[in-house]
Amino acid sequence: MDLTALLENKIALVTGSSRGIGKEIAHLFAKNGANVILHGIIEDHCQETAQDIKKITGITPLIIAADISDYSQIDQMFRDIFKKFKRLDLLVNNAGVLEDRLIGMISADNIDKIFSVNTFGTLHCLQLAARLMRKSTAPSIINLSSIIGIEGAVGQTAYAASKAAVIGITKSAAKELGPQGIRVNALAPGLIETDMIKHLSENKVAAHLENTPLGRLGLPEEVAKAALFLASDLSSFVTGQTIQVDGGLRV
């Protein structure tokens, strides 16, 4: 198999692809032949990713700006995709937010923000994508959960709950959409070297690394490689699974 063309001619939407894990997934998908649709809350935030992909493919990818916490904007995003491509083959539900709040300090607004993006946004995107995927060959949906959604963490009760829900969504959707040929899986990254963890203290990171057998932070491109596996025919008989990309943190 030509490893440079694992996703040849696939139409792929990667939400939250302006930076970090989403950006690396978009890059890797493009390198493997996918026609990648970029998404960010503001179009300008995706320009750097778009230019990088143009260097890879020679084509400027479509960018769609949408607030994943707003259903009407999500709905319009998928309408735009249908208008241009008439189908969708791959969806990576990567867009997410993280806010640290200790129990007793979690406001209703915090909960609404975290769940509206991480959980409800993921569910809305999955549902609308599934409609477009009925015309696809070997479609795949990849939801980004988190090791925190499995293990929990101090100060992240709301975030953990939102990401645990993503795993439940993944399992149920895999059972329901499987008969239509749509595979649904999740990734649960551990501590990955992105802007999202810059607020963590050196002591907190060090304590985390002590419990990680590989003894280091993960890289966004390492999560992207796992996403490529789940998006491609290499995982053609894999559905309903949550793959941990955590350096062995949870063994």
Automatic annotation (TrEMBL):
Keyword Membrane in annotation: no
PANTHER family, per database record: 3-OXOACYL-[ACYL-CARRIER-PROTEIN] REDUCTASE (PTHR42760:SF133), SHORT-CHAIN DEHYDROGENASES/REDUCTASES FAMILY MEMBER (PTHR42760)
Pfam name, any one: adh_short_C2
Entry EC number(s): 1.1.1.-
Enzyme class: oxidoreductase
Organism of derivation: Kiloniella antarctica
Domain of life: Bacteria
The entry's keywords: Oxidoreductase
GO MF annotation list: oxidoreductase activity
Protein name (Swiss-Prot/TrEMBL): SDR family NAD(P)-dependent oxidoreductase
